[in-house]
Amino acid sequence: MASDDDVTKVLEVVGEAISIDPLDIQDDESWKFLGLSGLLASATASDLKSQIGLDIRPDDFDKYPTVGEFKAFLKRGPSAAQTRTNGNGSLPKTATPHPPEPINPWEGVPKPKVPLSIILQGDPAVSKKVVFLFPDGSGAGTAYGTLPKIGNDVCIVGLNSPFLRQAEDFTCSIERMARLWIDEVRKLQPKGKAYILGGWSAGGYYAFEVAKLLTEAGEKIDQMIMIDSPCRLLYEALPAQVVGELTRKGLMGAVGGKKAPEWLVQHFTSTVYSVDKYMPTPLPKDKVPRKVNFVWVKEGLVKSVSESGLDVDMSVKVTRFLLEPRGDLKTEGWEQLLPGAKYRFDYMTGNHFQITQPFHADSLGRVLQKVTA
């Protein structure tokens, strides 16, 4: 049985292993989210035994997948852990439960510091097509402001996160974020028109959940545009340790040699935490959009991971997705969530974090011009 002091020491050892201040490790975070798995988990278990004298096995981080469960396990002691079975000697699967969400999605949410939407091109009242683009982990729909003109009859609306510049309050699920945006989208959509929804990275998840809400309300989705958005069914949430490494190396949100601003890193981290708890379910086949467009980049963040100096676990699929060069990706699991649609695949220049940066935004713009024509 571990004392409170022992638990504190354990978190100090773990924090050093994953390059996170132990005071920032929260009880409801999962070890997988924090990047503690595989060889790193084995090395950490060995450190705990040599430095503190606790007999921790590497698979204990899998048996007790959240920080809170692991701390409770430590306080009970290893002997108590052996009895935690299903009756057949195997441990039950556990999952971090979602806290119950209020009927009013805005309950407890502070007033946004930025507008929820910004009309970047055209006029939704007169344009033939209105394209709603949801933000990546930065939360900034204004990032799409670098796009070239898409078309004379195309309106582009960027959605800003309600938690932009106040990421410390961002504890919402992906599904609840969609509920925070739904009225804003409806307000700008001309009556009677089918929707066009899209998003970059996590923005694809937001677009998908907004599509579910709209179709449940009887609305129609004509088209979805998934911009380098890896399906959550196949890809993990990006480990927090990887976020820290990318920030340290200036590979995330850096423009013109300047490092990413602190507000962007904070919002990105909060987004990743929500993605870690997110597991989508399919749209009913009769609600699936007529067209689904996939836009992928082919470049990785680095030419060589081994020469980059990045200390990351390359067994994590989403880490490889970001860092390594790719071939021509296709549906990447989205076909399970959007069955029966007509799929189109296009490819643009740049890496995952350069999509709306100058020059590469022109490449994305050319794709959008084609798919909205």
UniProtKB/TrEMBL annotation:
<dbReference type="Pfam" id="PF00550">
    <property type="entry name" value="PP-binding"/>
</dbReference>
<dbReference type="InterPro" id="IPR036736">
    <property type="entry name" value="ACP-like_sf"/>
</dbReference>
<dbReference type="InterPro" id="IPR001031">
    <property type="entry name" value="Thioesterase"/>
</dbReference>
<dbReference type="Pfam" id="PF00975">
    <property type="entry name" value="Thioesterase"/>
</dbReference>
<dbReference type="InterPro" id="IPR029058">
    <property type="entry name" value="AB_hydrolase_fold"/>
</dbReference>
<feature type="compositionally biased region" description="Polar residues">
    <location>
        <begin position="80"/>
        <end position="93"/>
    </location>
</feature>
<feature type="domain" description="Carrier">
    <location>
        <begin position="1"/>
        <end position="78"/>
    </location>
</feature>
<dbReference type="InterPro" id="IPR009081">
    <property type="entry name" value="PP-bd_ACP"/>
</dbReference>
<feature type="region of interest" description="Disordered">
    <location>
        <begin position="77"/>
        <end position="105"/>
    </location>
</feature>
<protein>
    <recommendedName>
        <fullName>Carrier domain-containing protein</fullName>
    </recommendedName>
</protein>
